[in-house]
Amino acid sequence: MKKLTIFIVFLLSFFLFSQTTFANSTNQLIMINKATNQLAYYNNGKMVKTFKVATGRQNGFTPEGTFKVVNKIKNRPYYKDNIAGGDPRNPLGDRWLGLNARGTHGTTYAIHGNNNSKSIGTYASAGCIRMYNDEIRWLFDQVKVNTPVVITNTKQSFDTIAAIHGYNVESKLSKVSVSTKSPQPTNTSITINANTSSGKDPLFKYAIYDGSKWTTLKDYSSSKSINWKPTKAGSYKIKVQVKSKKSTKKFDDEKVINYNIFTPASIKSVKTSVVSPQPTNTSISISANSNSNQNNLFKFSVYNGEKWTTIKDFSSATKVNWKPSKAGSYKVKVQTKHKKSKKKFDSEKTIHYHVYDAAKVTSFTTDKTGPSPDNSTIVLTAKSNKDSNNLFKFLVHDGSKWKTIKDFSSTSKVNWKPSKAGTYQLKVQVKHKSSKKTYDQQKEINYVIYKKATIEAVQTDKVSPQFAKANIVVSAKNVNKDHLYKFLIHDGTEWKTVQDYSNQASYNWSPNHDGRYKVKIEVRHKLSKEKYDDFKEVEYYINKPVTLQQLTPTIREHAAGHPLTISAIATGGTELQYKFELLQNSTWVTLRDFDPSNTFEWIPPNESGDYTIRVLVKEKGSPNEFDAVLEQTYSLQ
């Protein structure tokens, strides 16, 4: 009876202490988590320290709930073995923080030191919480009487436990970062990120100082990031303030970082001292003007038709001299950037400049190396001595006659889009605009055009679904002898090539497990350089084997002449059908032919005796007589 009374008192005290929060006059809090054998000490809303502890060697030894420190004792004797307080042998150490746990008054349960430091971090005590002696001495000096103590067993963090028990944990910013490093140009989208190291349900406030005033970007909310897009250049300060949701302070913590914004450089004009065209070896002065020359750097480059060459790399100089020694159609480019810019350049402007010689073809090229598919846009480019007075004519021979793509003009580049397959001749003729010849020079190249491969559909000789190990022939519809075919299977995880490109337009597939598959055929012309010209794919299902698990009812004895509802439980397949049969004189008689319903009501005869019924099941459309069968004998009385 005494044990029962103690147990009831324990339950009541545990319920009361574990269900209530505390009124905390000390603004201190101690928490012990038995799951990790750790103790946390909070003061004024902040976690000050955590310690390793030892708790009860059985889970129920150390009580769980919300208690208080009701006394503080130095050098408490160990009465059981008559060991004086302060004695190195004293298992209580020399500091005692008594708890009012389980209806006691601080003399039974406590946080105390010990004489066995190896036990710390383990489950070793009879109910108290053990600490290292030097650590309990420190804690003893900090903790006030009536400080709440929460003992729990949980995977939650200490901040979460504190918040659950009504303790306001201040939020602390661990880091404020930006998505792009300072400096950045105006109108850059910058993400400001904030992270906390402590606190429950933190709220964040974001503000910007532009040199004259603070502006709130976003008032307190749970957002851990915000976008800022400054439109004006300047030296800014970014401030993030944080406070816990229940905090009464203006803020718990704040961080401020500096950030510089500059106006990106912008080219206004690029000019030359003499207008184009000019003969070779002419001294040409190139000058540039930007939005703020004194803050910007300039780079001058020239393109001679083959490559870009730097005349002068980035510097504060806004002018450079250029003396081309070869004829050609040039591009003169000026790039500018702010001296603080991290970009390759902020702005650029390109002008064309022609330096000429006598008209002559130096090259005739296509942007795509043949062969190419029909209806491809092929850029034909002719290069001459780049005399600005040169004219170009482009022609094509389709096997029967020459046709003009573009008559003489200053354009050295033209688009050609052949619609039919075949072997073509491409030709460019060049002449100076003052020439009286039909042309000064010409150049021809051959080019092959093929018809791009297409695939109409993916075919299978067996309709989906099928079962594992089935032999399924996958083939492309409308096969072409000039096409190559590649077969791929996706098993739900990844694509696998099962037959690489070849002129074989079919593949024998025997899946070894059930699942949802995708079957894909990629096709390309034998001349194609593409990964594929076209593809088609289909989904294909491989079902689990059909099995019959059980027939119900399982009870053998039933009343003769009374209806009996028989149900079959089957697995596998997708659209199962069920057939019910009765054994009569060694012959199976159909009670109900295949139907999607797995239930059948049988009206048994009035005669008593044993009757055997079987159920056959198969996948809809299965060529088999049945995929699974199960029988049950019933005794009618």
TrEMBL record:
UniProt cross-references to PROSITE patterns, sorted A to Z: LD_TPASE
Keyword field contains Amino-acid biosynthesis: no
PANTHER family tied to this protein: L,D-TRANSPEPTIDASE, L,D-TRANSPEPTIDASE YQJB-RELATED
Domain (L,D-TPase catalytic) ranges: 28-152
InterPro entries noted in UniProt: LD-transpeptidase, LD_TPept_cat_dom, Transpep_catalytic_dom, Y_Y_Y
Active site feature: H112, C128
Annotated protein name in UniProt: Triple tyrosine motif-containing protein
Keyword list, A-Z: Cell shape, Cell wall biogenesis/degradation, Peptidoglycan synthesis, Signal, Transferase
The protein's annotated pathway: Cell wall biogenesis; peptidoglycan biosynthesis
CDD domains with a match to the protein in the record: YkuD_like
Residues spanning the signal sequence: 1-23
Pfam family, one: YkuD
Species per Swiss-Prot/TrEMBL record: Halalkalibacter alkalisediminis
Keyword field contains Signal: yes
